[in-house]
# Entry
Amino acid sequence: MCVDVFVPGTCIDVDLLLEQVWFQESGTDGFSVEEVYDLRIINPPGNQPIDRLFMLFPHNCSSIANGKREPSVRVVDMSPPARQAHRPYEWFYDGEADWQDPKSKQVILRSYVGTEIEPWQKRGPGMPGKPLRGTCECLFQGSQGEVIASLKHTLVCVKFVDGLRLDEGEAGWLRLVVTPAVDKEWPARAAEFQLGPWVKLARRRLFVTCPLIVRTTLEGRLSFFTGEAQSEEIREHCRSVEATLFGEHLNVEGTTTRIRDHRIALLACGQRLDICEASCSRNITFVGELPTSSTGAEHEPDKTVHGLWWAGGSDRNQDKDLVHNARRVIDRLVYKKGQDIKTEVIRDLAPSGKHEAYAFLVENMLSTKLLEPVDAKIALPKAMFDQVRGHLNEQEVAKCMVELRKLYASAKAWADEKHGPLYREFRELHPFRVHFRLDRYSVLKKD
# Structure
């Protein structure tokens, strides 16, 4: 569960990644899984137009059909009038009647559980974006497809259709529905308990990971299977996948994704399914239980829905977030009329124990033109800040910030023996893992 979204060689922002995992009762003692991902994607200023996205999933969600590997991933069309509220996770409206420009054809987020965003009826629509439509295809076919499927991962390319694309500065909404291949290995095999003479409990311990762990897990598995303990044929296939995945996609210079707000909802549908939190790592916060009325269960009144909710992302890891710390420097200089003494900025703003990394960040802000030196001071460039009016050119800031983000995401920078640890102090993806327990109760037949 979870997804690593990226565009090779491009810096993108995911303003909101809303991840829902729906567990449904299936058969007498089983269940099915459906994952729903809502992403508000922003193409930062200065970028080339984006017409496709790449998604790496941490489990196999593909199968062979007519000699070709096809993903069990689909894009849900949310554009009016095709959008249909046929599932309980429908938290959008099309904006046709209420948005200021009826011809905008945007979709707007009404509200979502556990956030401070209120319904649009109370304070106006929030987070508008272009509805994105597209087709999904597995990037790896043939022997490469077999390798990555056996490693329990899937790489999907989502190509936008009908001439859709995200130009610089544009935001768009994308909804993906994923059906993982549920087999004896995923979810994990159940431990069974007898609860009295007529009730059996099947318990599975599962987890949700972050995009960074999705990536590093696959890298570790490929590294193992390219080792000397494997046959030459296996090593050759794995090297081929490794070269394509990392050399041509994930590790291309300039590839970076920042998730500002990452929400995870785990939902059990049915009276015989239950979800309990086991633990979660740092960098993510357990929000609590989902109110049944907020899950949209009124669309299916015959089903009981129980859910848990977590929140993570850059907004909740500000001390370690690259963009947030760079913005603190910029905001300080705006307050100081455009310039300030360099050593005082570092002394006052650096998080505890990170003074060396913060000084290194300021030097990199100078090299990427976010700042300029003025004797012993640092200042905002004239193209970025009007000292007379006190006006900050956010467009110029965003363009220079992209260059800083690409620098910090560079594989060469992280591998640098001297400065690598300083680059790693501030990042855009903050690793986490959520462990939970899924219980399935079944009633045994009486003799």
